[in-house]
Amino acid sequence: MRKTILINDDWKFVKENVGAEKVFVAQGEKINIPHTWNAIDGQDGGNDYYRGTCWYGKTFQKPELYSSDQVYLEFRGANSTAEVWMNNTKLSTHDGGYSTFRVNITDALEEENELVVSVDNGPNDRVYPQKADFTFYGGAYRDVYMVIVSDSHFDMDYYGGSGLQITSEINERTAVVNLKSFITGDAKAVRYSIEGVGDLEVPVVDGVASGNIKISEVHLWDGVEDPYLYEAKAELLKEGNVVDRIDSRFGCRTFSFDKDKGFTLNGRPYPLRGVSRHQDRIGVGNAITKEMMMEDMEIIKEIGANTIRLAHYQHDQYFYDLCDEYGMIVWAEIPYITEHMPNGRENTITQLTELIVQNINHPSIFCWGLSNEISVTGVTDDLMENHKTLNDLAHSLDNTRPTTMAHAFMLEIDEPLVFLPDIMSYNLYYGWYLGELTDNDTFFDDFHKKYPDKVIGLAEYGADANPRLQTETPERGDYTEQYQSVYHEHMLNMFRERPYLWATHVWNMFDFAADGRDEGGENGINQKGLVTFDRKYKKDAFYLYKAYWSNEPFVHL
Ligand code: GCB
């Protein structure tokens, strides 16, 4: 039976590129994971934070195993390239700093083991992201697990997917739930069950087991009002015994993106008004805890948002879980951002595959984001081809959700790239970086007039505000809380008259580190958050949104 052991504690860390064999000799600093080496220097401005290779090491005794057991290490996120070594043998390399990856260490195990992991956040031309307005904190900054399974098991190599994929089709009050697993080894059958509904045994054919369970009178997953989750279980059977088991939650819902009504959920218009989230926070960078994630979610709930764009990369599994539980409508995306790199095509493909395969069961996810502002340095044939590949890939891995993109304002609305994804959005900053606030209105009016049949949304909009800067005469570019509020009040009123927008996402819920910045009285921080980087101070614009979005009466003292 599967055993999952958290192995975050008691690692050694060396902040220089010493090489695998020297990590323990060098007597590294004792640390626990989650860990980043840029917690401070990635947040202090100057764009001079350490980007390179550092080393993590850990010794451990061989766990108790049956002879045919398989042992995997599971890293939930190491930014951005990780190499895993066991007892001086390199076992694998993973490119991409925000997705889960697994390594089979079974054959390398000895009685006493030295596990060594190099993590590199240095620049290169093949792994995304390389250029963007946020700090690329290096490190093994999410949980690490050891997973022990018997030789027959639900697939651990399937891009780090859970080995169980759940989709549902809903007709009237009945849902037909498809459960599908990928299996390693020679087990012959899988028993699926949905708690409170029923179960079903199916054979394994060519490494795949698939079956449908019907739910009559389905309880829908219905957004923030009623995010109902079902519990599914898959048991792998060999000679009558259960040899592996995985659990997954899922939700049943229908939705559409309509050119006139915007987003509809379970048959009714469901206006999406929301925020974007970067994961990092002051002092710890991206090495955040579950409590911090929960705090973020509570703040997002308090403001009354019903959708989150999880920018600009794959977020922690725990955060997607929270989105399921809180009923958030999620835009999930890969960090294919700012500048297309011809040598990075392969990486966009693996990152998108990992995003989708690892997250396909989350009912909160409603679209897959292919890229962000990728056209700022021009739309080349190579970029276009790559997007076609990604768009097709997303459809082939998941035919239940649309693809989307966040376009830069300078991408002409007639460019073929605009309409490449199923639904699309623009990032607009009129009234902040350039132009007038009313240019936002005009942009959408012109677009809608020209393309009334196309579904469009607003993926980003915002203005920086430093709470230490206050004024009675707010003006664009002054970094005051007052201007931030003027800006957002205009946008809120603009949305009211344009119900066709499929979603709007404030940039950003929280201030975040962008070490290249030095402006508005702060170093290294993008201050477009409605809440400060330490989550301690809610800016005036936070309360503005709360007044517009939340049903609760409140007094802001
Ligand atoms: C954008 C980017 C985002 C930046 C934001 C800004 O369009 O997509 O990553 O942080 O603008 O604040 O300038």
TrEMBL record:
Residues covered by the Beta-mannosidase-like galactose-binding domain: 54-122
The organism's place on the tree of life at top rank: Bacteria
Keyword terms of this UniProt record: Glycosidase, Hydrolase
Domain Glycoside hydrolase family 2 immunoglobulin-like beta-sandwich: 205-253
Listed GO MF terms: hydrolase activity, hydrolyzing O-glycosyl compounds
Span of domain Glycoside hydrolase family 2 catalytic: 259-549
Any GO BP annotation: carbohydrate metabolic process
Keyword Repeat: no
Family, per entry: Belongs to the glycosyl hydrolase 2 family.
Protein name, per record: Beta-galactosidase
